[in-house]
Structure formats: C-alpha cells, structure tokens
C-alpha cells in the first residue's frame, strides 16, 4: 500500500489542550482544501474505544498490570491502523490524531518504567514502519496542567488520577522523544494563552505545508 496522505499527531500530558488544538488544526487544513480525518488514541474505532474504556476505568479489585496496559494500547492501535489510519492515508486524506505511539513511550515507557526497547519492538510489529509526518508536542509545566484539570469539574479517569511525579516522568519522556526526532516532533509552549498557542501552531503548519509542497 502506498501512503499518499499525511499523518499529523498532537501529543502532550493531561490538560495540555490537545482536543481543542486538534480542532484548530483540522479547521486550518480544511480551509486550505485538504480532506481531513480526525481521530484519537487509544480509540478511533468502536472496538478500540472499548479497549480505551478498559484502560481508563481501571478496577480497584484487580489493578491493571503495566505490561497488560501496554499490550492493550497496542491492540487498540492495531485496530485503529487497520480500520481508520491506513485506509484514510491510502485515499489521500490527511489524518490528525490526538496521541499516537509517542504517548506510549512517554506514559508506559518513561512513566511506568517499561523498557523502550520492548515498546520499540511492538511499534515495529504493529506499525510496520508507519510513523507520523509531523507531531506537535503541546508542552507545559505539570503544575499548570494540574490547575487546568482541577477546573474541568468532571470525574478523573485512571490516568488523570496519577500523582504529579508520574506526569513529570511523562513530560521527560516526551522531551526525550523530541530530542531523538527533532525533524518530526515540534514542541509548542501550551502554557501560553490559547490564542498565542494557535498562532504558533498556524506558523508551524504553514511552514510544513510549504516544505511538503
């Protein structure tokens, strides 16, 4: 299968504004006549969304093992790739996803402590070389993200209930990924006012569109 569309991901910890800015990226690209599919991980298909529910809910009677968590993430990803991402790219559409495998290295790798070599093996097995063309890493201090989460007024899921030191490790994991792939992963200061964040994203997208064209 030949990939003809583009694959853009938004990454970041809890409260970084991924969902809001995903909508901004979608609208920005559509305004330039680009056909866009938006999705998220874990999830993106009915089956993968059921796996997502398992991952987010947890079970006090039977805590989810870290390795089981990792395998569930990749099970959802395999379904997502087969049903949504690869078909859309083959049609020439652009896929924008709220998280992808960088999140796995940050959450299950850096924060949970699973060796990156194990994650990389699953990445190759499941993705067969498919990686995003561009990743916008919405970065902000953990304390600011925690303040945002506190204002949401909804019950927190299993990940959102983690302590700040967990999210510090997540942030370090994202930073390590950005250092390893600076040509793909672009940090965005998500602690700024939303209008400035989106101005920065627009500049980055315009630069990338010019480069790809």
UniProtKB/TrEMBL annotation:
Keywords: ATP-binding, Kinase, Nucleotide biosynthesis, Nucleotide-binding, Transferase. Residues 10-201 form the Thymidylate kinase-like domain. It comes from the Bacteria. InterPro entries: P-loop_NTPase (IPR027417), Thymidylate_kin-like_dom (IPR039430), Thymidylate_kinase (IPR018094). GO terms for molecular function: kinase activity. ATP binds at residues 12-19. Phosphorylation of dTMP to form dTDP in both de novo and salvage pathways of dTTP synthesis. Belongs to the thymidylate kinase family. HAMAP family: Thymidylate_kinase (MF_00165). This is Thymidylate kinase. The lineage of its organism: Bacteria, Pseudomonadati, Pseudomonadota, Gammaproteobacteria, Oceanospirillales.
């Amino acid at each position: 299968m030949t990939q003809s569309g583009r694959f853009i991901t938004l990454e970041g910890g809890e409260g970084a504004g991924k969902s809001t800015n995903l909508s901004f990226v979608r609208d920005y690209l559509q305004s330039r006549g680009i056909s866009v599919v938006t999705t998220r991980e874990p999830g993106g298909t009915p089956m993968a969304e059921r796996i997502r529910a398992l991952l987010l809910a947890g079970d006090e009677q039977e805590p989810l093992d870290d390795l089981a968590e990792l395998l569930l993430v990749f099970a959802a990803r395999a379904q997502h790739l087969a049903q949504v991402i690869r078909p859309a790219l083959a049609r020439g559409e652009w896929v924008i996803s709220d998280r992808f495998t960088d999140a796995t290295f940050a959450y299950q790798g850096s924060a949970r402590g699973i060796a990156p070599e194990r994650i990389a093996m699953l990445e190759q097995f499941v993705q067969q070389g498919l990686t995003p063309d561009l990743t916008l890493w919405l970065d902000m201090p953990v304390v600011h993200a925690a303040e945002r989460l506190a204002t949401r007024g909804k019950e927190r899921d299993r990940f959102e209930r983690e302590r700040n030191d967990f999210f510090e490790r997540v942030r370090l994991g994202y930073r390590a990924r950005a250092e390893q792939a600076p040509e793909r992963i672009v940090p965005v200061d998500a602690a700024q006012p939303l209008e400035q964040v989106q101005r920065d994203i627009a500049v980055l997208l315009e630069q990338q569109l010019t480069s790809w064209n």
